[in-house]
Design brief:
The chain has three helices and no strands. It is an all-alpha fold. It has one domain. The longest helix is centred in the N-terminal third of the chain and has 46 residues.
Length: 102
Amino acid sequence: MTPQRFLVLISSIAISLTLMAECRNTEFFHLCLQSSFNMHNGMFWRAMRAPLSFFEVRPVGTILARFTNDLDTIDQDLPYAMLEVITVSFPCLDTLTMSFNH
């Protein structure tokens, strides 16, 4: 293999890995955004259907602070948790697949 062909091969591998990583990150972003949107809607739906006694006993500021704190926690921690699950799951699946093939 000539040095020029080797350089083209290595460059094409690097470009394809970069494109695949970008596609993965874009899809992961959309997945996190959709998950967060669904959780926000679910929390809002449940809060709107709570009995009136719930709102009479608790001050509005307490409810609002709790709601915004929970949403902030979801938005901050969900992407990291999902990425960690994906990062740990694939090597485990790979190890199991390799062990069952022998």
